[in-house]
Amino acid sequence: MNMNICEFDPITGTMITRRATPAELAQREIDIAAAAAPVVPASVPMLNARLALIAAGHMAAVKTYVDTMPGIDGEQARAYLEFAQNVRRDHLLVEGIRQVLGLTPGAIDALFITAATID
Predict the structure, then answer these.
(1) Which of 3, 12, 58, 68 gets the most CB atoms within 10 Å of its CB?
(2) 3-state SS assignment for residue 30
(3) Is residue 110 a contact partner of residue 38, using CB atoms and an 8 Å limit?
(4) How far apart are CA 87 and CA 98, in angstroms?
């Protein structure tokens, strides 16, 4: 692949054009791939999270997990699941759900990305 780079030459005070080096071409490919990669949102609306869990077939297991949590932790988890307007990716309940469902961090990220696209 050939690519030209335009840059300012401070000695002559003019713009010059030169061929890109292999390292610059490789960095360009990395930059393009990074820009195309979906960004994992820090939080999503709880409704969207629930809809993503339903679509993935996980909602029943999540409800069972939360409904069987004992004590104040269970009460707080149920309140969070039922009444929170948003769910944060870094919330402890999300990590607990991930572990109970046996999902990878990447799978949880994918659920958040999916939830962010639901309108």
Answers:
(1) 58
(2) helix
(3) no
(4) 14
DSSP 68: T
Q: Which residue did the predictor score with more confidence, 76 or 33?
A: 76
- Locate tokens 């999916």: which residue? 114
The one-letter amino acid code at 106 reads G
Q: 41 is written with which tokens?
A: 């949102």
Highest mean pLDDT of the ranges 10-14, 17-21, 54-58:
54-58
Secondary structure element (H or E) that encloses residue 8, with its range: strand 4-9
In terms of Cα–Cα distance, which of 58, 109, 62 is closest to 82? 62
How far is 42 from 30, CA to CA, in rounded Å? Answer: 23
Q: Is 77 exposed, middle or buried (0-12, 13-18, 19+ CB in 10 A)?
A: buried
Query: What are the domain boundaries of the chain?
Result: 4-36, 43-117
Kindly report the pTM of this predicted structure.
0.71
Residue among 91, 89, 71, 90 nearest 80 (CA): 91
